[in-house]
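Entry for the shared binder. Reason: the reviewer on the internal report wants the predicted structure included alongside the sequence.
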Amino acid sequence: MHDLHFRLAAEADAPVLVRLRDDAAHWMQHNGIAQWKPGEMAEDHFLRRMADGEVWLAEADGRAVGAWELWWDDEPAWGPQPPVAGYVHRLMVDRASAPRGSGRAMLAAAERRIAEAGRAYCRLDCVSTNARLRAYYEDAGYAVVGEQPLKDGGKGSKYAVTLLEKRLVVSADPMS
């Protein structure tokens, strides 16, 4: 496997993020997964997420092969919560060029970042009807902890999501 390198996305990466998201949406549609639609998110979405949280790129051989968003709260899915978790959104893999295992490697990088911030949980959600994605996350060590039947994802309609989390090892000493 080629080495993956992770870095925070910059404004200039917004078109790449749109491409990754649209390619993932096309793949989902082709494989009968009703979750994302091509063209749903433009550059302004990713620019807002960069301003409000963190957007990460995964690169292999100098090419962006994946990305994810890291949020520090997620009230639409999880409601008000104490600051004990980081929330992964839009985990995207370029299936044409990403090395095998890139999705898990990106999850692991997000988990490390969350633990480094002193938070004990990595949380995420997926559309409740997406059994394939739910199984993927469960295989990666995430446990189903609930359902949010009426998540408002800002797209004009509400939908049900499955809530998953993974307990992280957080060092008491950030220097260790």
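Summary line for the report: The mean pLDDT is 91.
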